[in-house]
Protein: TRAP transporter permease
Amino acid sequence: MTEARPSAPAGDSDLGLHDPLADSFPAGTEGKILFWIAVAFSLYQIAIAAHIVTLSSQIQRALHLGFLMLLCFPLLAALHGRGVPAKVLAWVLAASGVVVAGYQWAEYVPLMMRSGMLNDIDVAIGVIALATTFAAAYVVMGPALPIVAGLFLVYALFGQYFPGPMVTRGYDFAQVIEQMSFGTEGIYGTPLYVSATYIFLFILFGSFLEKAGMIKLFTDVSLGFVGHRMGGAAKVSVVSSGLMGTISGSGVANVVTTGQFTIPLMKSFGYRAAFAGGVEATASMGGQIMPPVMGAVAFIMAETLGVAYVEVVRAAIIPAILYFASAFWMVHLEAGRRNLHGMNKEDLPSIRNALKEGWYLILPLAVLVYLLFSGYTPLFAGTVGLGLTIMLILGASAALGLPQGVLRIIFWIGLGLVAASFLQFGNSALWGGIGALLVWNLIYAGGRKTIWQVIDSLAEGAKTALPVGVACALVGVIIGTMTLTGAANTFGLYIVSVGQNSLILSLILTMITCIVLGMGIPTIPNYIITSTIAAPALLQLGVPLIVSHMFVFYFGILADLTPPVALACFAAAPIARESGFRISMEALKVAAAGFVIPYMAVYTPALMLQDGGPLAESIGYAAAVAYIVAKCVIAIGLWGIAVIGWLGHRLAIWERLLAALAALTLIAALPMTDEAGLALTALFAGLWWLRRRRA
Structure:
């Protein structure tokens, strides 16, 4: 049941810490038990999403966390090959998590009545809830997030002893436990609510599409589209990872799926191992800003800001396209500098044939996007998308048992009508059709094999959701501390005081905060922490609401490419057989042009399709969008040229410095900077043309 993984290079012996869930469920009785727990977890989440089971929001969150605890500890102990004592401890911790969930369910009404006056049992259960959540985060993600959350918890408990403006009035132990372990301000806060609803459902949706062959479809289309171009192997990585980002919100997951193919392919065509790993890590992390899923942060952002999901997507779409365009440009320049040609076109798959074979896989994704942009809730859209995917998998298997010709055509037409009936009759018609297809597939052996594929997808989806769910729970400790103590105001006031003298310094300070916090912390908790601390301060400095949140989100993603931790790069290390640190240095180079995009959006919100800003007021909204996109393309183009040092020929150091200076002056929309930047761009282009003509 497990696959052999490439071994890590020397010096990277701790890679398993960064990707502990890469292997499948272990063999043996324990593995089977864990497998069926994961299946039950997914079925429970589907029942909640489809309103087959209706529970209060608090109980729903508690059961979600209980399932996470039940699956997390024993699975990680089994995957790490721990001994009997460690496995016994893992099951004890898992049982403790279940007890906490059961207590929250059984005592739901009494707990509300005892609000503010917890008894000793309540406090004990709250301590167990905190301890198991911290322990789960440690075994799944390593020490970084538990340490940060632990520091905030210490501040909540002992803030009255802190110096200067950090001092608090002091809080009773029971009050802190109630804040963190009960109600909706701590571990059961908004992040866990979003995990228990939207995030899990979209992860499951991606898991089903991957099992159905979406990775192969994306890879074949990417190969046929750009594989024959200069440096085509690396361009395939950028395009395929961008496509994968539409269904998978995990950068690390993208690395270990598409990277298994693209990194060896890049190496075979002459790319250095570190650069190949850096390209894959950069492109895969970009999947988190690629709609519609966006690493699940889109749902948390919409919930936090109280705006429609489509507004978040609208703000993300142009930066996402520019991010992948900048990575594509960097790859093109590196290929030109090293004279790396593309693959033979006759050896590549045909785009037409790939789409002909797998076009139906695009239908659930297309319906999902349509529903999201039509105003339906993400929960409804995700449920329908997941249901359609399951229906297509089961329907394709059932159709194989029919003779080719009219009968098979009639079957597909009927299945299409059943699938479309959800618009009239809701999800019940969709799940009824799935039930009928399950019975049909049980009749013959080929169908039973497909049912096992569906069951396997349910289990893999639950396993994939573990890090996100646990992170969403633990980050609630940080939010709970912020709410209890008002600590966010202290840091926010400092950023505002800096910004009164220089907005660019405030942005740099915020960027550094996002990157430092993001070292070892996944994107979702990093976004939640930094948006709680820094985004309100940027809002006070005149940065539009969504732009301020997108700014911290963007640099939270780039934190996973920044050494010394660089989670995405260390995930690529065993595949590339290269040091994770070297890969991260190359990833920074590939992503360098992308660093300018958030800054340009702050100065000109039209880049994120937001109103406001002096440019839109002076020339109009549509003209401002066109102008800032064109300026951003020029800026990232120049920045790439400066970093790689090639544009048709190797550039002298003075040419690279001139390109970098032109790019920097184009970033800020200050008086005369655009004029100076465009003038420097024209000067660079003229000098480059003269030198090329003489050569």
Remarks:
- The chain is about 75% helix and 0% strand.
- The chain has a mean pLDDT of 82.
- The CA atoms of residues 315 and 610 lie 7 Å apart.
